Amino acid sequence: MTMRKVAQRIPFTPSKIQASLLERCFGDRRFAYNQQVEAFNTYDKETNPNPAYPNVTGMKNANEWLKDSPIPSNALSNTIMDFRKARSAYFRKAQYQKHRPRFASRNDNIQSFRNTMPIRRMDGNRYPLSKKLGSVRIRKRDRLRYPIENLSSWTVKRENRTYYLVFLFDVDIQPKTQAEGRIGIDLGVKNFLTLSTGEKIDYPNRLRRLEADIKREQRKLSRRTKGSNNYRKQKAIVAKAYAKLRHYRDNFQHQLSHRLIEENQFIGMETLMVRNMTRKARKKLDSDGMPRRNGQSRKRAMNRSILRDGWSGLVDKLSYKAEWYGRTFVQVDRFYPSSKLCHDCGHKYKGLRLSEREWVCERCGNPHDRDVNAALNIRDEALRLSREKA
């Protein structure tokens, strides 16, 4: 039996009284976190290597109002654990200042608190958070996917004025039945991904419309006076537009990764270094489908396309779903010349340019679609690596 952590996010609309209680919980969580950050800021390797971090009891004794807080008792302890993770990550990084724990702000678009001692029962179609916070109604279309007895924690989150209840379940996920498909995947800029079967997959046009909405709202924000009420209102609208785009992209990637896992037993993919790719993109614009707007350089266009498509997100989803459902997921070396090798005879076309979407092998004379040929080579190389490991 292999237990996995699976989350389910459910939107809900709190009453006015419940909303005020939740906002107070968000504030108390921020206070506890900022107390840790304040102590951390006194850290000095020579004079103060071990700052005194306040615990929950100490914070409640020093602040009587915190004792009457509606926030669950262990949510403050979880806040301290969250800070410790941030602190550990800070000391693991080479460039410290980029990852330093910062103060939580009430103006952040996302506010949340987590309870790891949940009630494991339902009152009809309502889930009781606590005696002080009341309960949340679960609509029929949002019915729980897993037994409430498997619940390990819940989180209340407010994202862009929308409240969510996020359940985290401990689930025994069984492997799926064996599939016959074996594919290679080539990620690209012109097409989101190309399969070794010859299929090319792109995001729906709705993604581009959501990006256009962001640009329009961002331009409105740039015309507002920073710090004004209109600026804060427009900033919330921009944040909501970004969230809508992010949720749509994640939903598309989940559906796509689910389909690939269902149909194929073996999946091969190239190893991606997105940070290096966006830093070292070429400047010249070739005829490979990349847009040029207002003299936009190829480097900027490619960076935007790579980051917009969310390659890393798809790789992560395929990786953990393959592990869950008994599939084989192999990534080939990032220096493997998948696009330059002829899949039929193995000849390497060293002069292949990025603008050449189709090319003919000099040795065997077979024509190749650049992306399909790369996907075929990735599949074969991944199979070879899999056999070596076995």
TrEMBL record:
Coiled coil: none annotated. GO terms for biological process: DNA recombination; transposition. Keywords: DNA recombination, DNA-binding, Transposition. Signal peptide: none annotated. Residues 311-378 form the Cas12f1-like TNB domain. One of its GO terms (molecular function) is DNA binding. It comes from the Bacteria. Residues 173-279 form the Probable transposase IS891/IS1136/IS1341 domain. Pfam families: Cas12f1-like_TNB, OrfB_IS605. InterPro entries: Cas12f1-like_TNB, RNA-guided_DNA_endo/Transpos, Transposase. In the N-terminal section; belongs to the transposase 2 family. In the C-terminal section; belongs to the transposase 35 family. This is Transposase. It comes from Aeriscardovia aeriphila.
